[in-house]
Design a protein that fits this description.
Strand order of the largest sheet: 2-3-1-4
CATH class: Alpha Beta
Structural class: alpha+beta
Number of strands: 4
CATH architecture: 2-Layer Sandwich
Oligomer: single chain
Radius of gyration: 14 Å
Strand content: 25-35%
Mean pLDDT: 93
Low-confidence stretches: none
CATH topology: Alpha-Beta Plaits
Number of helices: 3
Length: 100
Amino acid sequence: MNSAVRVVLYHACEEPDRIAAAYHEVSHRLAAVPGLLGNELLRSRDDPTDYIVVSSWRDLAAFEAWEGGAEHREDTAPLRPFRRTTSRQPFGIYQVVAAY
């Protein structure tokens, strides 16, 4: 079984340039994080104010090590104002169970 995980963060923003700038700033800060394979900023086709950030991690241990570290909150601060607060939870962690 694959041990890779995807972390999905839910965001809302009416200003595409602002959230894109914050996303790029955070991505540059995270470029050297061990176990982070990459991330994407996605915008809903149906609701242009609805965004998600999907990050790909080597495994849950790598994500949890980074999330528990001192830099986590500071590194992701630029995106925090856009976090969707209407959701039950502002993020989800998904384990890859099949892939091609």
